[in-house]
Amino acid sequence: MTEQTERSLAEQSADHRGGIGAGPGGPADPGTAPAPVTAPAPVTAPAPVTDTPPPLAEPRPLGETRTWPRDFTDRLTAPLPGVRALARIAREGKLRPAPETLREIQQLPFEPGPLPAAGPTTVALTWAGHASWIIRIAGLTLLTDPVWSRKILGTPPRVTPVGVRWEDLPPVDAVLISHNHYDHLDIPTLKRLPRHTPLLLPAGLACWARRRGFRHVTDLDWWEAVELPAPGGPVRLDFVPAHHWSKRTLTDTCRSLWGGWLLTAPDGRRVHFAGDTGYGHWFEEIGRRYPGIDLSLLPIGAYDPRWMLRPVHTDPEEAVRACQDLGARALVPMHWSTFLLSGEPPLEPLRRVRAAWETTGRPREDLWDLPVGASRVLAER
């Protein structure tokens, strides 16, 4: 969450009565003392679901013009913060790490390397930092939430360089956007792309992209999908729910949707990109509708203070639990080690996700805790 976002949250308090109050899974009332910290509950495998999931939607046409509701406030799973929450944050000053922890920045993992070869059967990931990935799948090169800027509005500069130089990128076949917050939808980065680059967006963002000259724009609702032609066969991309929200200006709260993406290769291998999300029931439902997820790219940073950020940002233990809810074989942590957006020490997300993963007893090699700039290839089935 950026300082711009923090400021803009105050503008909507009149529209969301009760402020940050007591929605399901929401944080404590900002006027009360925070709850005492307790050890996280053990992570257990989700209970089996016996009912038959609904059939997947037929892919929609690329580039179609859609009509959407005025806003998507009804999709929120927790009330948005109000003025009282902003006042409490101002008093406590806890949206940045303590100064004595900043020496950990020098230890943040950064190991840039060459991109893996991308043949028609390849599924590979390269972490550029934050939620920005280069995904090679079936011969395509896809970018998720690309942010190559050194600084985004309202935040300190990035603490690790971009893991892949822009000039080293192969031609980009499509860009996937999870939502419109500034650390996920970065105009200076998008302006580097040819305007014929296909953009896949949440519902309500197509007009925004077309006004900026992009000609191949598709925006989707939750559970909708498109297919992209690829050398290895068509790649299916489904837009799936997340526990988050959207806003870029003082007047557009929740005017566009938010979510993640589920990528299915021609041979059935699946990659889930969660975007930005809190923990909640959607993970189990995604796993039910899309069985056999191989990789889930989940956020593990920007979670402190929990009383404010729990509804919209998973902490490391919740990310591990979400991976199990999804039924995913491997967890790929992201959304840390790039921008310091909240109060936890810079290295804490990595320490905690490794510890939480160990408690599950699952293979260590299925935690893909990549350094910024590193790549890994998913084995073929």
Question: What does it look like?
Answer:
It is a single chain. The protein is an alpha/beta fold. It has a single domain, classed as Ribonuclease Z/Hydroxyacylglutathione hydrolase-like (Metallo-beta-lactamase, Chain A, 4-Layer Sandwich). Strands 6-5-4-3-2-1-13 form a seven-stranded mixed β-sheet. A six-stranded mixed β-sheet has the order 7-8-9-10-11-12, covered by helices on one side. Strand 7 and strand 8 form a beta hairpin. The longest helix has 13 residues. The protein is globular, with a radius of gyration of 20 Å.
In short:
The protein is an alpha/beta fold and 381 residues long. It has eight helices and 13 strands. The strands form two sheets. Strands 6-5-4-3-2-1-13 form a seven-stranded mixed beta sheet. Strands 7-8-9-10-11-12 form a six-stranded mixed beta sheet, covered by helices on one side.
Topology record:
Layout: H1 3-9, H2 83-92, E1 123-129, E2 132-137, E3 140-144, E4 174-176, H3 187-190, E5 199-202, H4 206-211, E6 217-220, E7 225-228, E8 235-240, E9 260-264, E10 270-273, H5 282-289, E11 295-299, H6 306-309, H7 316-326, E12 330-334, H8 348-360, E13 375-377
Parallel strand pairs: 3-4, 4-5, 5-6, 10-11, 11-12
Antiparallel strand pairs: 1-2, 1-13, 2-3, 7-8, 8-9, 9-10
CATH topology tier name: Metallo-beta-lactamase, Chain A
CATH architecture: 4-Layer Sandwich
Q: Low-confidence parts, pLDDT < 50 over ≥5 residues?
A: 1-44
Oligomer: single chain
The side-by-side strand order for the widest beta sheet comes to 6-5-4-3-2-1-13
